[in-house]
User: Which sequence fits this backbone?
């Protein structure tokens, strides 16, 4: 039976479904469903797994082949580096004679790159009426809808997924929608009418004709567009001053768990842990929010970390990164222990193009 927040979410989902049927998402993501199942269900059949080849598995990780998920292809080389081990792990994952919680706890992190997004995408294609997908997009959607599940302190991946999957199945039944289509709804809710396979939202810095430099503390890094600061911070974390002391939070099931970390009170831009001390750090970018709003948001996240992730003796810190620090932000931050803010600088400069050669 749906809770009151889930009933409200169901109404929102029905509206999104109607909107999606008129969008490119329906054509490019929803309609290829049966084609994807027909191709890859035999690949993930338990009887076939002992003979699984890299050429059969690797295409599944590409959006052009799975028509649904981007980013999985980045893990291809690591996942396929030891095919006998991959076959064994997939056999454990897809063994329907065992409880899903036990299987997930056993396989998560067993191979570098075998995280929750890849694991649950495979589960979904192998058993599309039973298992939904857990990734950053679906987590963000449930946070946006106010129905993100509450987890116990230290709760394992298998148990967390079981709770998450129950919500997905309940929602799908309530709106008479299959789990594949529901997963496309999450994309529409979080990203709008832009298909996942479109141009990358984070332009590689080496392809820019003009570049900018961002300074955070003493670090200066190449930065493409100001609106991509969030991705830039994450992708270049270890090269920045902040990355010397702090590491982006990770779990066995998700190496980049600290990027857009979802919890029951929202989604943190970046969650990090100190490299040598028992400390946590919530990093939040001040976009168009008021100073009061962003301070309240960070304090809410810090409180959640203190209650649900940190040990009693751990310190929890917060940092607000803003384009400029107004008087209100100065006053607000000055009264809160362990909360600071830093200012980033964006400096555009023009570069001469490389000379034209005489070679043809």
Assistant:
């Amino acid at each position: 039976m749906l809770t009151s927040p889930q009933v409200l979410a169901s109404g929102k989902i029905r509206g999104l479904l109607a909107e999606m049927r008129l969008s490119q998402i329906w054509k490019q993501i929803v309609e290829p469903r049966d084609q994807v199942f027909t191709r890859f269900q035999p690949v993930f059949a338990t009887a076939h797994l002992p003979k699984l080849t890299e050429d059969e598995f690797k295409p599944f990780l590409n959006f052009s082949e799975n028509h649904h998920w981007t980013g999985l292809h980045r893990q291809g080389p690591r996942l396929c580096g030891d095919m006998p081990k991959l076959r064994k792990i997939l056999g454990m994952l897809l063994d329907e004679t065992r409880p899903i919680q036990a299987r997930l706890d056993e396989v998560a992190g067993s191979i570098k790159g075998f995280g929750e997004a890849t694991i649950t995408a495979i589960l979904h294609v192998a058993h599309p009426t039973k298992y939904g997908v857990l990734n950053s997009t679906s987590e963000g959607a449930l946070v946006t809808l106010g129905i993100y599940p509450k987890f116990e302190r230290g709760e394992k991946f298998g148990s967390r997924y079981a709770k998450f999957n129950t919500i997905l199945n309940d929602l799908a039944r309530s709106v008479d929608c299959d789990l594949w289509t529901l997963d496309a709804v999450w994309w529409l809710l979080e990203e709008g009418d832009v298909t996942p396979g479109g141009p990358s939202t984070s332009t590689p810095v080496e392809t820019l004709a003009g570049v900018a430099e961002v300074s955070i503390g003493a670090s200066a890094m190449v930065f493409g567009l100001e609106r991509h600061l969030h991705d830039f911070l994450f992708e270049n974390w270890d090269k920045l001053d902040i990355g010397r002391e702090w590491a982006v939070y990770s779990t066995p099931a998700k190496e980049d768990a600290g990027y857009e970390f979802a919890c029951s009170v929202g989604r943190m831009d970046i969650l990090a842990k100190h490299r040598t001390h028992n400390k946590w750090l919530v990093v939040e970018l001040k976009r168009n929010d008021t100073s009061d709003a962003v301070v309240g948001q960070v304090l809410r996240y810090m409180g959640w970390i203190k209650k649900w992730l940190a040990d009693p003796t751990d310190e929890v810190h917060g940092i607000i990164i803003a384009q400029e620090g107004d008087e209100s932000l100065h006053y607000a931050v000055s009264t809160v222990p362990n909360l600071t803010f830093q200012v980033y600088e964006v400096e555009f400069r023009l570069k001469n193009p490389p000379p034209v050669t005489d070679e043809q």
Observations:
- The two ends are 70 Å apart (CA to CA).
- Residues 199-214, 217-226 have pLDDT under 50 and may be disordered.
- Residues 205-348 form a domain with the Trna Endonuclease; Chain: A, domain 1 fold (CATH 3.40.1350.10).
